[in-house]
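Per your request, structure below.
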């Protein structure tokens, strides 16, 4: 098994918590980082620390070369058509804000924005703000009883010819997988601009943006074994090029005078200021790490591990699972009977188990489920069967204590 050999590459996982081995089941919040990513960033700071694009000296030349090489890696990694379609941001949230702000001048009063009901707040709030600026209207795409997007309701909403459709590739709270190829195709037939939040998908699936055919696809480095503080905005060139820049200033300009400013061409036009250089280089190392793996085999092993986790939770009894489908990606949402999720999380932490508890930045989804919050266990390439067994044993003791 591939996954059983990878744990040693992640130094954070070597520690213990009050004598318990660390069992990290919070990858959906942020993944741990392999040594290769840590080393790549340290190497930049030690030997190549300089700003990019702006100097004639060797340090800057090396930094620029490394930085721009990651753009080329990303073009291949997600199968973009052009390197200029890759924009570096500080994360998924900023990427969505760049798009939502950039579309302000293209939207008018009364136009419709459709949003996935299970979306992360980062894929809700920027569209609400866009609606406030333009007089547009936001409507959620309903869920079915088993917490999947309701395709029939979606088709009915598309008859209103929305201007924008914002989707999740994978729900961060539930792990449910959306059929984005079909959803995007239907949206395009209705004339909508489409954005897909791929933050929870990018580390676990092969993503082909040309096959999905979306206008924008966004994700973060820190959820794909890379550093925090860096994200990616992919956009089809013709649509991306029409965005009004969110940030203005250095680097994104072609010329400046006190009379007027002329913006640069893509990708520079949407990358104002000093970029997250070390983080981009770390992201490049994370891509190398992911691509070094037999991805189809890794995906199959992750799916088997997730299904094992779901089954073991069901066997415990008094566990409520939410949208626990066999094709979910890397996450399980649950509660222990009527116990408060935070109490469960604290008691698990006392046994070295790290899970996420709360609303998972998906409060509208929690309201739909009739919950104030829940627990979420999520896995990565370093998760093994022993982690799941340790977690289940800890849950047994929590259940005995609370029920």
């Amino acid at each position: 098994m591939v996954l059983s050999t990878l744990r040693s590459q992640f130094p954070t996982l070597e520690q213990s918590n009050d004598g318990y081995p660390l069992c990290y089941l919070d990858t959906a919040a942020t993944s741990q980082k392999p040594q290769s990513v840590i080393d790549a960033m340290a190497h930049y700071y030690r030997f190549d620390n300089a700003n990019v694009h702006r100097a004639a000296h060797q340090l800057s030349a090396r930094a620029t070369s490394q930085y721009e090489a990651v753009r080329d890696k990303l073009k291949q990694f997600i199968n973009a058509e052009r390197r200029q379609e890759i924009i570096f941001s500080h994360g998924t949230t900023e990427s969505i804000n760049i798009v939502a702000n950039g579309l302000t001048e293209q939207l008018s009063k009364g136009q419709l924005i459709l949003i996935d009901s299970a979306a992360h707040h980062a894929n809700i709030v920027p569209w609400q703000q866009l609606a406030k600026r333009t007089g547009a209207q936001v409507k959620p795409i309903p869920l079915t009883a088993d917490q999947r997007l309701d395709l029939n309701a979606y088709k009915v909403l598309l008859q209103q010819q929305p201007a924008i459709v914002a989707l999740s590739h994978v729900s961060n709270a539930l792990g449910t997988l959306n059929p984005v190829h079909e959803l995007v195709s239907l949206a395009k037939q209705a004339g909508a601009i489409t954005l897909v939040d791929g933050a929870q998908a990018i580390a676990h699936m092969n993503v082909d943006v040309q096959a999905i055919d979306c206008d924008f696809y966004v994700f973060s480095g820190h959820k794909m074994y890379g550093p925090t503080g860096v994200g990616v905005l992919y956009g089809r060139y013709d649509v991306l090029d029409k965005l009004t820049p969110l940030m203005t200033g250095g680097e994104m300009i072609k010329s400046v005078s006190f009379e007027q400013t002329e913006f640069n061409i893509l990708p520079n036009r949407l990358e104002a200021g000093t970029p997250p250089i070390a983080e981009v280089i770390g992201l490049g190392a994370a891509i190398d790490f992911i691509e070094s793996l037999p991805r189809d085999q890794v995906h199959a092993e992750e799916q088997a591990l997730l299904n094992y986790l779901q089954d073991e939770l069901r066997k415990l009894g008094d566990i409520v699972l939410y949208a626990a489908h066999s094709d979910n990606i890397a996450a399980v949402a649950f509660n222990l009977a009527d116990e408060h999720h935070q109490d469960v999380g604290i008691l698990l932490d006392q046994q070295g188990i790290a899970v996420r508890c709360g609303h998972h930045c998906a409060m509208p989804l929690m309201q739909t489920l009739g919950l104030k919050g829940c627990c979420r266990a999520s896995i990565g390439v370093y998760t093994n069967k022993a982690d799941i067994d340790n977690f289940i044993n800890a849950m047994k003791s929590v259940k005995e204590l609370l029920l």
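The mean pLDDT is 96.

Regards,
D.
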